[in-house]
Amino acid sequence: MSTPSTPSDPQTPGGPQTPGKPSRPSQKVAVLGTGKIGEALLSGMIRSGWAPADLFVTARRQERADELHTRYGVEALSNADAAKRADTLILACKPQDMAALLAELAPHVTTGTLLVSAAAGITTSFIEERLHEDTPVIRVMPNTPVLVDEGMSVISAGSHASPADLTHAEAIFGAVGKTLRVPETQQDACTALSGSGPAYFYFLVEAMTDAGILLGLPRDKAHDLIVQAAIGAAVMLRDSGEHPVKLRENVTSPAGTTINAIRELENHGVRAALIAALEAARDRSRELASGNNA
Length: 294
Hints:
Elements: E1 29-32, H1 36-47, E2 55-58, H2 62-72, E3 75-76, H3 79-85, E4 88-91, H4 98-105, E5 114-117, H5 124-128, E6 137-141, E7 151-157, H6 163-174, E8 177-181, H7 187-195, H8 197-214, H9 219-239, H10 244-251, H11 257-267, H12 270-289
């Protein structure tokens, strides 16, 4: 069971981690709000060694609860019962639903219960203020590639979370990708860069596919060419150790095709547009944290 101790330093150094096996497999873990992200976590945890008997789920619709029970062999509970029986609660709800969920959980959560929030823009202090004093809380920003075990989950400790709590959260989210600890003050920036990040790549692939069609290629061939280029480039970025500028220069011959394309991207302000887009996403994350859900 998670036991509050000296608050951990959320600025613990180190690169992305993939813990793999659960750090405390005897823990009872409940996923509250088992949508796509919640189900991905559930599936990843089971593949990484958690026993279905140690996992609970909650769902708004009975049909969804029955589906999860049949698919994974886990017990479906009400939110209140999950709070009573689980040692760790993963809050995978929408940000606008968090206040109501916490009001439902508060009478049943003790200081020995670890709460892990995966709701964008919700601060650990927002959760702590609505629970028993000294309840450990951890904030996590996953992204949608957790659905294919290639996610990046950014983790920050609340005021009462211990180093063991952080390790436990890393084991859970490490089952579906990599994890990275950051101070909570950096969470809004990470949400803009990583949480929303996959959408920017999909947008770019969509635009490049349209360009391929304009250049005379069938849509399916343009799509296949771009997707493989994206996969290859990503693997090279991850594995080569080279700076992206160096990798780009390796493709950019003097007076060649690539430099002409790069010139047009710069002429159209693509770099500035990306920076402005990320700033807008960060600002929206801050608005969500302040309670502006409109």
